[in-house]
Amino acid sequence: MTWVRVTDRPERASACFPGSHTRVTGIHGLSEMVKEKQQRLGAMAAIAAIAAMGGLVTLGYGQRPSGMAQATNNYAPNTSPAPKATYYRAKAETLLNAVLAPVQSLQIMQRAMANAPDADVETTPTLALLAAPLKTTGLGPIRIGMTLDDLRDQGLTPVPIENTGSGECQYYRIEGYNEPMGLMAINDTVLRIDLLPGSLAATRSGIKIGSTERDLVKVYDQKQLEAKANPVTLGKTVIFTPQDPGEDMYRLVFETDDQGKVIEFRAGQFPSVTWAEGCG
User: Fold this and answer.
1) How far is CA 29 from the centre of its chain?
2) Residue 191 backbone class (left: φ over 0; alpha: ψ -120 to 50; beta: rest)
3) What SS3 state is found at 234?
4) In angstroms, rounded to a whole number, what is the distance separating the alpha carbons of residues 68 and 99?
5) Can you tell me the distance from the alpha carbon of 254 to that of 216, in angstroms, rounded to the nearest whole number?
6) Residue 25 in contact with residue 280, Cβ under 8 Å?
7) Which residues contact 184 (CB under 8 A, 6 or more apart)?
8) What is the pLDDT of residues 4-61, one digit of tens each?
9) What's the rounded mean pLDDT across residues 141-157?
10) β-strand pairing of 189-195 with 142-143
11) What residues does 189 pair with on adjacent strands?
């Protein structure tokens, strides 16, 4: 696999943030916020699982061994080996999986609803987001270059994400859309869309969270890919530049980990889409 290393990073014009000296949390901070939210959701499921397992363990301890039960009733004690503890561990693991499965499949169920033939994406715009692939120019009804008012006109309500911006740059989520996604807006204009860990969205070519660097080389012309080391993820930042007329001002950017797997990706207008720190 051959990568073209990016050596010149486009510098951000200071005019984008006139007079702003407040530190802004970068996109990796936003990613960490998403992970914390997912951990809280997982913790809730784990609590339910622990409670259920507690009932299973109580049931196990509440049953006397067969030898003791027979001796109590004047029968000769059963000398066969007691059931191994692994029996209960196996049952507990099965129970835990049963509790977590509905939580993990919620997004899949929502996407299935969005892709159903009778899905009403006009009256429920968030369904259109779930059914759409990420393009260099946007995601479903969200187009790069839209204003926040344009989003509202589409029936999508942008909500500021705390601690992810300052001054003219701010990250937003869409009310009622539960997948991990952030919209970066400067001067109330959407310039990029970040899909974060846990998102099930994919590009038109099928690249998504969990895809590999080899997958990127397979679906995109290698001449249109540039890569550089990412010291934060310990992987790479891979940039795809389209060559279609009118689309060359946009980019797809993929962040990979030290295993070469995509952990987050984004689309947007050059150069803001390449800023590793987001609004930072």
Assistant:
1) 13
2) alpha
3) strand
4) 34
5) 9
6) yes
7) 27, 165, 169, 170, 171, 190, 191, 192, 193, 194, 268, 272, 278, 279
8) 444 444 444 333 333 333 444 455 666 665 556 555 555 554 444 444 444 433 333 3
9) 95
10) unpaired
11) 147, 186
End-to-end CA distance of the chain: 32
How far apart, in Å, are the Cα atoms of 21 and each of 15, 202, 207, 280? 13, 36, 37, 11
CB distance 183 to 173 below 8 Å: yes
Alpha carbon separation from 235 to 151, 218, 230, 254 (Å, rounded):
34, 18, 5, 10
Domains of the chain: 40-104 (no CATH), 121-274 (2.60.460)
Residue type present at position 223: K
Please list, residue by residue across 53-89, b when 16 or more beta carbons sit within 10 angstroms of its beta carbon and e when fewer do: beeeeeeeeeeeeeeeeeeeeeeeeeeeeeeeeeebe
Q: What is the C-alpha separation between 242 and 77, in angstroms, rounded?
A: 78
Two structure tokens written together for 243: 């060559």
Q: What is the pTM of this model?
A: 0.65
